[in-house]
Specification:
Structural class: alpha/beta
Number of strands: 8
Helix content: 25-40%
Number of helices: 10
Order of helices and strands: EHEHEHEHEHHEHHEHEH
Amino acid sequence: MRTPNHPKTIGINMSTYVLVHGSCHDGDAWADVAEHLRQRGHRVHCPTMAGHGEGVDRDVSHDDCVASVADYIGQHGVTDFILVGHSFAGSVIARLTAKTPEKVRRLVFLNAFVPEDGTSVLDNAPVAFQELFPILAEQSVDNTVMLPFEIFRDAFIGDSDLERAQETYRMLNREPLGPIVDIRDMKAFYELTTVPRSYVLCHDDGSFPPGDPQGGWLANARRLGLFRLVTMDGSHEVFYPDPALLAMKLEIAGRD
């Protein structure tokens, strides 16, 4: 599929990016964005978290997700990198950076969860999802969650036509419930002051009810303290319909 052309950003140093996917995705979700970043001279890694992707054991914990990304980084000898997390992965990159802050140049959260200390990702999700996810997991055979297409289409990819939304939905995998409901100690992250952070906010993301000052993506962003805010058009799944624009925004979010 052809994607919109966007001008090359001036004054961006070449960097290394580690892009961490969100729920129901794997590292391949970043393929088009990664290609645009590489064309602009950057090095890009797209690990797949434990329990995600096709044909894998989905009986995993949040700790397993963090450890799998840490293992990938160690195996590939990646240092001084920009660590990007989408959605659920915000909780993963926050905990990972608290363990090895010396490796991370900057954190970038893309419409991502920044859980309050002592809460789970699901605790920070919209109330409707807090109620729905356990029901969907109980109805499954392996304690996993897959949203009905009708919810996914309007809440997560409302900026695409029906055909593109259906195509994207077919690429999703069932999400393990365990990492979403694990209660996490976030104290080390909130005490961390040495790693700068950015938040990329997509205006057309309908996964949170709009205008709620206590919840939503901006409420998550405010927990970062001092941070760089980068805004853009696009839905929660923006890396599919407009990877070129997202790549440019990640450059702005990641620059020194």
